[in-house]
Amino acid sequence: xxxxxxxxxxxxxxxxxxxxxxxxxxxxxxxxxxxxxxxxxxxxxxxxxxxxxxxxxxxxxxxxxxxxxxxxxxxxxxxxxxxxxxxxxxxxxxxxxxxxxxxxxxxxxxxxxxxxxxxxxxxxxxxxxxxxxxxxxxxxxxxxxxxxxxxxxxxxxxxxxxxxxxxxxxxxxxxxxxxxxxxxxxxxxxxxxxxxxxxxxxxxxxxxxxxxxxxxxxxxxxxxxxxxxxxxxxxxxxxxxxxxxxxxxxxxxxxxxxxxxxxxxxxxxxxxxxxxxxxxxxxxxxxxxxxxxxxxxxxxxxxxxxxxxxxxxxxxxxxxxxxxxxxxxxxxxxxxxxxxxxxxxxxxxxxxxxxxxxxxxxxxxxxxxxxxxxxxxxxxxxxxxxxxxxxxxxxxxxxxxxxxxxxxxxxxxxxxxxxxxxxxxxxxxxxxx
Length: 433
Known about the structure:
The protein is an alpha+beta fold and 433 residues long. It is built from 12 helices and 22 strands. The longest helix has 21 residues, at 246-266.
């Protein structure tokens, strides 16, 4: 196996990228991690630096990677992956941990994903897709079951509407198709059967044929306590999910993950990268809610701390790209629970203020990349002239692991109490399910 030192270009500025920087920093083989553009916390680790580069599109990022001597690229955000960033770096012969643009359609188009699942008999909700309001309205009025309205394209985690009435469903369709609430992403909508049950998030490394999954996580998407309010990008998460028994995980592997990866390969678009599968565990068995083609947020901040310190994330990413995933060990901490509580700016996911000064109590601040019981993964933060301020809705993801879920929650909320800024908000019931 090659032992060439790794110089990594990590693209993004969220909590997910902070967690990736933290874990990649632990790799003995990693020489340097450059984060573009990064945030107020991504440069807190020994081998990590932020770069405020003015790269011109994807070709500009390729040129930046060449200038920095990069030999592994890790894109974080969904838009980059769906746009096909992997192809630009592949053309330049620079390894990039992301699926091809064609394979990333499983996230970029819900209509594509649903049709794919139908072709390969992968369990999912009944659905129809529409690009005109009249047809959608007729369907809504005809169906006898509760429904979900989804923008087919990317909508920053906010394009899923759970209407409480048929009139609300029609209004959601009109907002997407006619008013372009989500831009072109909502020009086509998917209306599907509402599935009741417990939801799990499965993050799976794939080299196109072989796969290895991280523990199942349970995300909290609603903004307010009691799972009320609008959907967000994620207000908190914990793992392993209490319903994720070995028998259930085996069934998910056999009926969902293996058929998904086999199906994509059979269609000539093998999936190499991170497959994030949202699953609803219904009385009739597990069914797919959605696919994502990259690391989840806040699932990444929850799950990476459950990898043993000796487990080398950089080696796993390279092994996927080089189609030798089975040659690299991935050891999970099985006697611990992991929790993330996301601290947000008041008003999120709606209108919120930016530029608010942040104070983090020094006595409890996570100062070491090796600290495993508490981590503050920055997201919407900026450091300028030594002053840390808010720059986004989700500000910091507080991550903790412990021997019990209750203890992990206690440690995480203690970490939350060290963060101070005006109009701070967080859910107080993470892990209640």
